[in-house]
Every structure is written in structure tokens, then in C-alpha cells.
Amino acid sequence: MKKSMLGALAAAVLAGVGIVSAEEAAVAAPKATLEAKIAAAGYQMQGIDTYLGGRRIKFDFQGEPAWIVEPTGPVAPGKWIWVMKWPGAFAEGTGQVDALARGYHYMYIDDWKHVMNDAGVARAKAFYDFVTGKLGFAPKANLIGMSWGGFYATRFASTHPDCVNRLYLDNPVLNFGAFNPRGWNGVKEAWHFPEGANWKDNPAMPVARTKPLVDAKIPILLMYGDKDKVVPIADNAELFLARFKAAGGTLDVIVRAGCDHHPHGFVDKKDGHRIVDFFEGKPAK
Q: What is the pLDDT along the chain (285 residues), one digit of tens a residue?
């Protein structure tokens, strides 16, 4: 008989005679590995490798590449971060490395073809349902949204605010009018750009979707460089901030003085842990 089976049997016997509690017995019993749960749900495994020091499980999720990185430190049960776009970019300064060290699992799905249009939001919700339902992670995610990832994060959070614990935005794209990606492969096709659209007041744009976030009282950390030439802050981060406040909300703001679109996160990489502090309800400043 395998050791895991013996462990489970012993735990059950001890629980039955009252030596340990049922809860302790459940902890002692073996649990299915993540890859076993993923395979059992019918998703095809794409391999296992190492990512940011953690063990990464890659799989196909409804036709899109997805993966989960296991923590590099002691597991914090249920806790997870979801990097919405550009995983691994500026990983130290944005808290990705520290989150793994502090026991968080790290999730990602690459669904660029939808660019978080309504179909993309539905796909993201399906991924969320899988992570929280079949895999058993906490019902509220911590979202990291850098640049385009900020667009993804705010679109998802404003549609499904009950699914989000905290939201970290960094030089986010929040308005097509000020960052018009017509020449970007796939974006025009996903969003069917009309000519002369008033994007900053379009209800699909994150700058026009602050009220659901305010009403849900989702804590938000907004970071940006005040010299961003790629995603102009006046029509993205600052417009979002103004409308968020006008809707009655407050959020944490950290401005990288003199910085362009890059770097994301803290300029001093060792401060990346402050992003994880924010996810845990502590001040990031």
C-alpha cells in the first residue's frame, strides 16, 4: 500500500477514535495535485517547467494557453494573483516574485484575440470559475494590470466585482481614444472600431466604468509614470482617477516622478513586496 494511502487511512482511524479532529484528518489526507485536477476537468496538459523560481503547470483552457505557478515559499492556502497581461514583465518591482515567495499561486490565461471585449470577459469569467470552483482557490482574486493588463483588469473587475479582492493598476490602458491601437494586430478585429468614436465616454471603456468599482468598494492601487508617452495619463490614469473620485471612491495613488511608460512597479525592485502588502490590506506607500 502506498504511503499516501496509509497516511489517509491512519488519519481516518485517528479521527474515528477522537485522537485528532476531522479537520486535522482532512489536512493529513492526500490531496489531488493541481495537474490531476486540471486533467480531471478535461483540459489538456501542455507541460511543466520552472517560472520565476516556481513550478509552472501549463495547460490548454478552452483553446487558449493558460498556466499556474506554484509558490516558492510556504503555501498560503487559497491565495492567488492573476496577472492579466505581460506575465513576468518587471516581475520583481510589481510584486510577482514576492507573491510567490509569500505563498500565493500565480495564474495566467493568454486571450489576446478577444482583447477583453465581451467575449473576452466571458472567457476570463470561465477561467475564474475553473480556478475557484474546480481547483478550490479563494473566491476573490488579486489582479495585476500593467498597461494593456490594466484594460483587462478593469473590464473584468467592473463586470464581476464580486470576483475581485484587490486591484493593482500600473500605467493602465483605460481609453482607446487616447491610445488608439488601430494598427495593432487583433485589436481592431476584436473591437470593430467605428470611425470617430467618442471612446472616453463609451460605456465599454474602463474610464467610463468606475461606478461599479466604487459601489463594490474594491481597494485599488494606481501607479503610473508622470511622463508616459505611450499611454497618456491625462486621458487614462488621471481621467480614471478623477471619475473614480467623482463617483465617491478613494484609491491609493503612487506616481513615478519623471518616468515614462516603463518601468512598471517600483523603480527600486526591492520594494515590490509592497504590492503584496497591498493585497493583504496593508499600505503600499
A: 444 443 443 433 334 445 444 444 333 334 579 999 999 999 999 999 999 999 999 999 999 999 999 999 999 999 999 999 999 999 999 999 999 999 999 999 999 889 999 999 999 999 999 999 999 999 999 999 999 999 999 999 999 999 999 999 999 999 887 765 555 667 777 887 766 677 888 899 999 999 999 999 999 999 999 999 999 999 999 999 999 999 999 999 999 999 999 999 999 999 999 999 999 999 887
Domain extent, residue 1, equals 1-30
Q: Is 252 strand, coil or helix?
A: strand
- Between CA 164 and CA 87 the distance in angstroms is 19
93 and 132, same domain (yes or no): yes
pTM of the model: 0.87
Do residues 23 and 36 share a domain? no
Q: Are 70 and 57 in contact (CB under 8 A)?
A: yes
